[in-house]
Amino acid sequence: MRKLRLEEIPRTAPDQVTEQVRHPISVVVDNVRSIYNVGSIFRTSDAAMVEHLFLTGYTGTPKHRGLRKTALGAEKTVRWSHHQKPQEALRRLREAGYTIAALEITDQPTATDAVPMEAFPLALIVGNEVDGVQEPLIEEADLALELPQFGSKHSLNVAVAYGIAIYDIVRRYRSLTSSEIPPAPRDLI
Amino acid sequence: MRKLRLEEIPRTAPDQVTEQVRHPISVVVDNVRSIYNVGSIFRTSDAAMVEHLFLTGYTGTPKHRGLRKTALGAEKTVRWSHHQKPQEALRRLREAGYTIAALEITDQPTATDAVPMEAFPLALIVGNEVDGVQEPLIEEADLALELPQFGSKHSLNVAVAYGIAIYDIVRRYRSLTSSEIPPAPRDLI
Questions:
Q1: Which residues on chain B are in Cβ contact (under 8 Å) with A140?
Q2: Which of A17, A47, A144 has the CB atom closest to B1's CB atom?
C-alpha cells in the first residue's frame, strides 16, 4: 500500500469548480461565533460540493482574514452570500423549492443517513456553538436531523457535526436512482 | 417540532461512562499539531464511544490547558495514553487483536462506510494536519480508509475528517449481527 503524492490525487482545478454541477444541497450557517469553525465549514463544503452557503446573523464571512487562513482557498470555490436575517435565506430557499432541515436535537428526530428521498433539493441549517439552531428557525424547518451520540457530552463541535451530517446527506443524494433525482433547483442568488 | 431542552436529552452521566461497554474501535492520533484539533477529537470520541485514544509523537494531551478548553470535559470520559513512538501504540493494538487502518489517500483505498466486517476490533490512525499519516505507519497498516472529496481542495480539516470517518465506522460496527460480532479485544493498557 502506497500513499499518493499530492500531484497524483485527482482534483478539479479551482477555476473549473465554478463550472461544475453541484449537489442540490445548500447550507444556512446562522450565528456561528468562531471564524475558525466557519473556515472549516467552507473546506468541508468544497469537499462535499454543496450548492451555496448562506452565512447569516453574526456568522463571519471570507472578508475576515482569519477565515481565509482556515478555509485554505475553499472560500474561492464555494458560492456564498451574507444575509443579516436568516429568514431571508430561508425565503429564497423555499422559493427555489428546497426542503428545510435543521441540525438540532428535537422531539421529532430524523437520522442524517435516513433523509427522505423526496427531501431534495435540501437546505441544512446549522447554528451557534452553544445554543444550536435558534427556535424561530426550528419552527420554519420541515425536518430536524440528528446524529447519534453515545457518550456523556451533549454536543459535537459544530464544524465536526456539520461534516458528519453533510457527508451523510451527500451520500444519500448520490444513492438516488435517476428517476428519483428531482429537477435542478432554481437559481438561489 | 420542538427543540429539546438540555435536561430532556438522555445522556450517560460522566461518572458512569467509564463503566459502559465501548465500541471495539480505538484511535491513534499521531503528530497532530493543533491542540484545538486534539480537543475536538476528544469530544467526537466521547460521542462515538471509542475504546481508547493513543496520543503519539508531538500530539498534545489533556495536560495542556488549551485542550481542556476545547474538549469541554470529554478528556475525563475518554480513555487515553501518550506514547512518544506510534509504533508502541500499534504493537499494543496488534497484541490485542486489532486491525490497523490509516485515514489516508493511497493507491488501495477502502471507503469508510465499507469497512470489512472482519476488521473489528479496528484501530484508526489519523496524522498531521499538513502531511497526513506518516509513511512508516502506512506500511504497518492493513487498510487505508478514504473519504470521497468532490471539490478542488486536497483535504478536509483533520478533526472533521476524523468525525466523518469514525461515525461511519461506528455505524458499520453497530450494523453487525450478533454472530458477526468479534470477541471483545484484550486490555490495551
A1: none
A2: A144
